[in-house]
Amino acid sequence: MHKKKTAIRLVTGITAFMVSFCAALLAAPASAAQAVSITDNGTLEDTCQMEFESVSPSLMELAGVEYIRMDGQPTGAYGGLYPGGSNAPPPAHQADGQRAAALIQPVNADGLPDPRDGLIGLISIGMSNTAMEFQTFQTLASIDPGINPRLRLVNGAQAGQTADVWADAQSQAWEVLAARLETAGLEPAQVQTAWVKLTRTGGGAFPAKALELKQDLISILHTLKERYPNLMLVYLSSRTRSYTYWNGLSPEPAAFETGFAVKWLIQDQINGDPQLNFDPGRGEVLAPYLAWGPYLWADGLNPRADGFFWLPEDLVRDCTHPSDAGRLKVARLLLDFFTSDATSRWFLQQRYTFLPLISSQ
Q: What's the whole-number mean pLDDT along residues 158-182?
C-alpha cells in the first residue's frame, strides 16, 4: 500500500511537475478546486528555519517495535499501522473494505443509483493543514484524465477547526461543510467517502493526548454517519512532520503521536468495538468502514524505508503549516493512494467491456 515508487515519484518528479501544477492552479475551474478562504490557504512567505531534531522512526518503521519518546522514556506502545505490527490491514478487514467499496456508485439526490447523472461525493474533514493539502490534491485530480467524471471532491476542512471543534456535533464547522456541499451541487445522500486528518493543538503527555484525539474521532465519525447515511468509507491520516518541539501550535512529538490515535481507532473497529460498527449484520451501524489513507509522517531529514522525507522547506515559517512544496508532497501521496488502493476503484474512470451478443440459430 505504501510503495517505493511513491517516494521516487515525489522526490524526482516535483521540479518537473511544478510548471504544469502552477498553470493548473491558475486555470482550474471552481468546480475542480472547492473555494477555500485566504485563512485556510495560510499564505505565509518564508519557509521554516528551525533546526532538525530526530523524533522517532515512523510508525511504519516501528512495526512491532516499542516507541521510545524523545526524552528517552519508554511508552509501552508499539508501531505498525495495523494490529500485530503490520503495515497492511488484516485480510478479513481488507475484504470488508472491498465489499464496502463495491457499494459506492453514482447516486442521485435521494441516494438511488444513477450511473448517467448521479454523483459520488468525497469530502475532507480537518483543520487548515488538511484544507491546504486537499485543495492542492483537488487541482491534481482535476487535470488527471483517469479520474471518475462522476466524482465530486469537496474540501470541508477549515482553518482553526481542530478535532475538539469537529467533535461537537453542533459546531459551526458542520454548517460550513453543508454550505460547501450545496455550492458544489452535492446532496448529503451523495456523500459516500471521506478523508479525515485532524489533531488537537499544543503538546501533551503520551498516551493521554493521543487518547483524547481518538475519542474526538469517534464522535466525529458518529456525526458523519448521522449526517451522511450513505458514507461507506473513511480514510484517516495523521499529522505531517512538525519542526517545533514540545511547545507550539502542533509540536513534536505530539504531531507524530497522532498516528497512534488513528492506529488505535482502526484497531478498535477491527476488534469489533460496537460504537465503531459498520456492518448491519453485526448490529446497529454507527460508523463507516475505517482504514488508513496515506501515512504522511516522516522523521524529517531521516527518510523512511520508502524514501519519503519531510524537509524544513516543506513548511512555512511557523514550521507547522505546509509550504507549496509540502502541499504538493501530500497531494501526490493522496493521488497515488486513491488511484492504487484496492478499496478505491470508484475513484477511477469506469471502463466497461461490452461483449457481442451471441444468439443460437
A: 98
